[in-house]
Predict the 3D structure of the following.
Amino acid sequence: MHLEAYSKSDLLAWSRELEEHYRGFQASGLDLDLTRGKPSIAQLQLSAALDGILDGDYCLADGSDARGYGGLDGIPEARVLAAQWLGLTEAQVLVAGNSSLTLMYLFMLSAHVLGLQGAESPWCRQSGGARFLCPVPGYDRHFAICEELGIEMLPVPMNADGPDMDVVESLVTADPSIKGIWCVPKFSNPTGVVYSDQVVRRLAELPGRAGDGFFIFWDNAYRVHEFDTTPVPLLNIMDECRRRGSQGRVVIFGSTSKVTFAGAGLAFMGASVDTLNAFRRHLSVLTIGPDKVNQLRHLRFLPDMAAVRDLMVRHAAILRPKFQCVQQRLREGLGNHGMGTWTDPAGGYFVSFDALPGLAARIIERAAAAGVKLTPAGAAFPYGRDPEDRNIRLAPSYPSVDDVDRAMQVFVTCVQLCSVEKRLGELGADG
């Protein structure tokens, strides 16, 4: 029954029952964490064969030794895999250390402070400052990069098939100081949305509407992270940009961070040859080259995308029951009460939950007091400010299925309790 159909006396009785249930959780001494999308120990163990896989053989395909200096773009074998992973040519990719976030930061720093097209091209030197479009709810670490560099963030609503392109196109057309847009196009963080073909095509047209120096930051972090064996299709952004002459205005990122060892994987970056050359000039000052030994052991373990897909089937078998548990608890506890809405993704690492307006921070606070840590309210919005205080990101990947179940029981109880309290407050003394 919907929350608004309950009488005040029924709500008061339900509130007392929920409080008793909640105190039981508090007394049980839970210590559960759903804050970050981390691979579980069982997932990390899937790549245990990386240890010792080289067995003293450090010879690369080109005959060089992986232990030596050089190789700014990564080893040849890794670039072949990166090209397949990102849907590009080998000339359009480079392979770095474990973090694609580092590459995103360095590319944005280069564009904003150093420039990619000569002395007058840095965003920070252009009148009006620099602004960036941020689909929300979105990835907090993307927003942290902009905030760190003093780039103003403009929130854009996220629809079921990607960013609201009517809003995006209107903003970009009217404001040449907008220098880019963040995109997580497949199993978006945290909603799990997959961008539709139409959205991808409209994004590819954006550079033609935008001011100088505009880039699409295409963070395809969950490219291979399906829960089922059937791949979820996503249009190739570079192909669409090439058809429109905007191929120099998209930068594509990916990594093995949630495929092999999260802290010791490979990061991929792809762009047009000209854009990549401009970035290399700055990158070559920072580093002589990446950890080629780690790249080589990855390529011995995952020589091609077929091997990657086989590994991801085993990842999915671990993750799927956890996400099914989340959905089951949400449906059973909140399904027809009008206490919130949530996403049911086909892959990725998150479920996005929208509580009734004004309740996210309170739900998170009450969950913490019962032993369940959640991502802070507002984390999925620029500057940590959710204007409606309703979005909560759930990350069930790391705990066991049993612990996910316990955490979700607490979460659902907190949502129910806070929603009933809100309704009682609306009814007031005379309700």
